[in-house]
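notes to self, project folder thing:

trying the whole complex as one job this time. last attempt i did each chain seperately and stitching them together was a nightmare. two parts in total, labels are on each line so i dont mix them up again. if this works i'll redo the older ones the same way
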Amino acid sequence: MEEDKKQVIEENAKKIKEKIKQMHDNQDVEEAKKQLRELLVSLKPWDIPLIEQSLIKEGTTISQIALMCNLHVELFREHVLGGESLKGVPAWHPLDVLIKENHQLLKDSEKLTLYVKYLDNISTEEEKNRKIEEIKDFLATMFDLKKHYFKQQMLLFPYIERRGITAVPRVLWAKEEEILDKLKDSMREVKLDPDIAKLKKNLMGLSTAISDQIFRETNILYPTCWALLSEGEWVAIQNQSGLIGYYKIDLPSNGWKSEMKAINPYEVEEAIKGEQLSKLPMEVRNSMSLVGMDNYTPVKEGAFKLDMGYLSIEELESIIKTLPFELTFIDGDDRLRYFTNNSNMIFLRTESTIGRKVEFCHPPSSVHIVKKIVQEFKEGKRDVAEFWINMNGKKVYIRYFPVKNKKGEYIGTLEVLQDITSMANIQGEKRLMDFEN
Amino acid sequence: MEEDKKQVIEENAKKIKEKIKQMHDNQDVEEAKKQLRELLVSLKPWDIPLIEQSLIKEGTTISQIALMCNLHVELFREHVLGGESLKGVPAWHPLDVLIKENHQLLKDSEKLTLYVKYLDNISTEEEKNRKIEEIKDFLATMFDLKKHYFKQQMLLFPYIERRGITAVPRVLWAKEEEILDKLKDSMREVKLDPDIAKLKKNLMGLSTAISDQIFRETNILYPTCWALLSEGEWVAIQNQSGLIGYYKIDLPSNGWKSEMKAINPYEVEEAIKGEQLSKLPMEVRNSMSLVGMDNYTPVKEGAFKLDMGYLSIEELESIIKTLPFELTFIDGDDRLRYFTNNSNMIFLRTESTIGRKVEFCHPPSSVHIVKKIVQEFKEGKRDVAEFWINMNGKKVYIRYFPVKNKKGEYIGTLEVLQDITSMANIQGEKRLMDFEN
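result (full assembly):
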């Protein structure tokens, strides 16, 4: 480095350090922030990493430097997080929430590079362990990344797939998988006594992968969704986002609200219009399938709308009969009303018992227990009663549950019988990826 | 014993032994049987046990003596197994089948008394073990007794309960439980090195209990059913008897047949008529509840007739949601059509995926496996695909099954997710009788 450039860096590092200290010590925070922002704007972007390195060398802690990073990211936010194509996204709109998460992610991606530099200056084993521990704690906070990606995979993708844009979601999902794998790898690395060079490489790779993905989302996914999705679709996305959760942001109670009815992907019937097409990023337009609009509907003739989905009676019964369990249902009048008529029942039940009082279905010696359990279910005093027996070499697990309707009222008791003989053999893991034959 | 009586016994025993030997050696079997029958008729019933004892002393084997028992029971069948009140029961009618089983049971009950005498003459340890082994084998054949009782509990009782006769089935079931307990006790006894006196007492008690029960069935249960049940009800009983099985009898292919439509207990609407009442045994008339006819019907408005029972859509869905499993259903078009919307899902699923192509619901890295499994299900090449993973400290068991309609056609794929973390703790037994709180 030329001597005068080095001097500039050192001088600026010193000034930044002062401001950070002020902010950290809560002295004139707003004024310090303002001055720091001005300082940062005056610097060349490629000087920032050098300044960071200098600060670390001088012993400034990562959490202090992070204050600067946050400001830095905020300053460059406009450049990185959406330009013209995302104009007009209201504050706390579900898309704005995703952008805000990316804002957090970008900060964390930058923090990862700080940690890499941080690992350069290790003199003792004790220092090494302390720094590793710090990185481990930080990585642990990053696992919520899954929530950001899961929202995209489950809430955004279906809406654009519906419109025939199927390749882009696949590519993005593959990248998201890679990033999560990298995060897991780094986590695994810091848990053991790590090879510092390897760890640095992993952290750096993770940081780059995350910021690259932010770039893709900002320039491809978000503009596409913003151009295509109607307000009702965003309402549906908003409703379901809360189930999944967020990456390091808290939603205000008075955020974006819409009176529109939520629209599910299968309810979207209008194909992409010409004016929308022109707003789509080039990458999307180039990759659009020739298949076009997906017109599938789960709302079939004879299908009932259930809590989550649509099924016909034939499907419902076939599903229940497919279950590797034996079910018997006693209705609200304590009558046996239904059982799954499987072949090879563990407990043989016959048609002649349909409509029979439950107290007559059991031997006199145990009927008082059955009545007690049902009574406790009715009174809401009990959620389950479980038993297990050995029968003809089988381990049989028997559970009783109260069945409640949507209003939470007792409408019957369900007996669930399961052969759990082979469960003892379930050890370790067998994942989808381990599937052979 | 007076000397002349003893002589008569010995003489008769000798004659009987000859005939049995002839039958056993397959010499003039019919003639020998005829002569033995004449001989047995000429004897006083109370002499029979003494003759049996004499035969055992002389070394005649139990299986040879059993030939005599069978004939003896046949001779007295009319007296023991149904008199006037069961007149007209056609051969191999389901009631006749129960009577025939009792015929077999009566023989076995008598055989048990023979085994008791058999245990009187033990000189060596080896002889003891051999005899015990023989008794063990015989007791093992008696466990089908459950089938005789189960047919009564599940097929006969519901029809008379329907008509307000509820006390009699309860008493009979309690007796049946006692008998099965006695059988289990005896079995347990012979499996260990048994106390001969105790074993003899057990076997004798079992024998008496069985023949007493035959008496109750013959004089109370069967006449009641015969007086009350219509032909369609017997058709239903016949149809279901085969599922349960029989006690030591084989049904001919050309047995009783009726063209009547099977009638389930809940379909019986006519109360007991005056003329029927007069045919009921006194015990039944005295015990009849004042409640009278049971008019419950499972055929409710809005309920669908399922393979076994009746349920409304609300009940069906509430049952599925009660299951301690997470279900996801992909339809025949490979679309996600339904999932159980439980709170605290192990795998979070969102409404936005309803109608989504299954291949878009999985990460790109594993989608080819999902497609392969579904394809194998469609082609009927596979019945299940199972996986297990550890997730947030939970052991999660994931199974996929093909769903088929009544015609056996593929209509979709079902994913069943189960938290089996606590299954490892299931050891030994916890029976209904062990229920405390």
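what i see at first glance: The first strand of chain B starts at residue 303 and ends at 306.
need to look closer tmrw
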